[in-house]
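Write out this protein's structure.
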Amino acid sequence: MTTPLTDATSRPQAHFAPAENWMNDPNGLIHHDGLYHLYFQHNPESAEWGNMSWGHATSRDLRTWQEHAVALRFDDDEQIFSGSVVFDATNSSGFGVDGRAPLIALYTSATDHGQAQALAHSADGGYTWTKHGVVLDRGTADFRDPKVFRHGGEWILVAVEALDRQVHLFRSDDLLAWQPLSVFGPFGAPEGMWECPDLFPVDDRWVLALSVNPGHPGGGSGMQYIVGDFDGEAFTPSHWDWLDHGHDYYAGVTFSGLEEPVMLAWLSNWAYAREVPTHPWRGSMALPRRLSLRGDVLLQRPAVEVDRPAAFSCEHTPVPVGGFELPREAQGAALRIELAIRPAEAEVELHVRAGAEPGDAIVVRYADGVVSVDRSGASNTSFSADYGLTSSAPAEVRDGVLDLDVWVDSTSVEVFVDGGAVTISEQIVTTDERVGVRIAASRPGATIDSLVITDLDRR
């Protein structure tokens, strides 16, 4: 029998997780009046999937979150599936009150008859909502996940026919009446249904992000991104790749109300999300990521600031064969590890959440042009037969230096390589006593250019 991780030992310190019950996709991400609003797929009554509603949390810094009352609750008529929120600055919808422009939520109304896009409005900055009803219905069973944005003088909505692997684009003047523009897809990943589309500008180009379930090379669900152009009516692709190479990054969408795109995603995988042994919550968000392009490559960098002094740092340090364990001040269950290392001809490893035995660790490894994360050394890997143990991706060593930015938390490890050109996100199930950090090399010659470790634990 699996012993669940509990609040007392393993609540995430650098990632949002609800106080209790089930959570999956982020919804309605918006920056408004100085606050970041995170709505999320939530079961307010259980840690199991079901009774889909929108939970709600706010933050001023994308790191410390305050959870609020459920924003949009399921009822006998509908469940509240994924969607988005925009600020209707000109009150084009007419739902403003006393001269104050409203926030508008477009969400998927899921009923026994199918899925359609419905609208709700808020006059108090997003804390309470009034349902208006369905505004866009194709009469199909799997039409969902509207993302709305302003383009020129009109509103654009993108949603998916999930099983067809198609994105449908619409336009509106008032967020109420929608006219079809174009259809995109299938494209890129050859398998799995599409969910949670997001279309946004990046560095004078456009990126379409899509969640795919199943079909990710690591097994289960994942995300792809497609670089291209959008002319106000149709999206034209030029390049695609997997957005994250780990097992646990899904349903990522960007915040409305920001000049530069910042993405937040669910840190899990549909292959085993229902079985992850945490209590009284189940599900957490990944780190928010600031997005940019290097050619056709989407760069993802952490969008949170850590305002703490380094717990440990060193420079120009050779890595002995067999490696070494870092001192106590460099250890912990929640750390940021910024490492620039010269592998030379060696295979190099960073061990985190390490226990007393050499194999008791999560291992970030570089060898022969490939970075991998091996979570087979976690305390518990047996709760699901679908819980994949290793993820990997090609990675550049620039001027002889491998650049790693590794965020370790109570239930996750996220690795950013080469300035965010490669990311690997992994959920982990281990005990709070395992806090060791080791660096190892397979042969002489590996050298640490710089190492900075910051303690993220807020307890």
